[in-house]
Design brief:
Layout: E1 2-5, E2 20-27, E3 30-40, H1 44-55, H2 65-74, H3 89-92, E4 95-98, E5 116-118, H4 124-140, E6 145-148
Parallel strand pairs: 2-4
Antiparallel strand pairs: 1-5, 1-6, 2-3
Helix pairs in contact: 1-2
């Protein structure tokens, strides 16, 4: 679940020659690219990249699933405990890493006023509490705010 306050225009991130935009978090002394919030150009490179992620079936049961597959393809093997990093410069030449304000993870990579709070891995109650608090804080600051809720069907 995500919650975001929009004071920035995502189009300002777009650069020539880049097809995928995502955040890299610094956590526990490691740099971790995070696919939780991404901006993707609709092009053949992106379709091929995501097709390759889909084919990485060995990560289907990994806690990070699609992010683990992307990390492997990009060459971040040490994060997956699969050996030394061998970064895939060809793939990475299509990637732009943007500021953590576009994908702040409360309690892990926290910022005081991010554009997007990404409540990854949090129990539903904690997600709703965090998103409610964010909405109230944003409303007090007279920001335009929209909660994005993904309701579970029982």
């Amino acid at each position: 679940m995500l919650y975001f306050c929009v004071d920035s225009d995502v189009r300002e991130l777009i650069q020539g020659g880049k097809d995928l935009y995502m955040v890299r978090h610094s956590y526990d002394g490691k740099i971790i690219p995070n696919m939780g919030v991404i901006l993707v150009r609709n092009c053949s490179w992106s379709r091929e990249f995501f097709s390759s992620i889909w084919k990485c079936e060995r990560y289907v049961h990994h806690p990070w699933w699609e992010n683990a597959a992307a990390l492997s393809l990009l060459g971040y093997h040490s994060l997956l405990e699969e050996g030394e990093d061998i970064l895939n410069q060809e793939l990475l030449s299509h990637v732009a890493f943007v500021g953590t304000e576009w994908n702040a993870l409360p309690r892990i990579c926290t910022l005081p006023d991010p554009i997007i709070h990404h409540y990854a891995g949090e129990p539903l109650e904690r997600r709703l509490e965090g998103m409610t608090n964010d909405y109230v804080r944003a409303s007090r600051n007279m920001k335009r705010a929209w909660p994005l809720l993904h309701w579970l069907r029982w």
